[in-house]
Amino acid sequence: MSELGAPTRRPYRVGYAPGAYDLFHIGHLNILRHARSQCDYLVAGVVSDEMAELAKGRRPMIPLVERLEIVRSVKYVDAAFVETVPDKVETWKQVRFDVIFKGDDWRGTPKGARLEKDFAAVGVDVVYFPYTVHTSSTQLRRALDVLSEPLAAPEPFTAERR
Question: What angle do CA 24, 29, 35 make, to 5 degrees?
Answer without folding.
Answer: 135
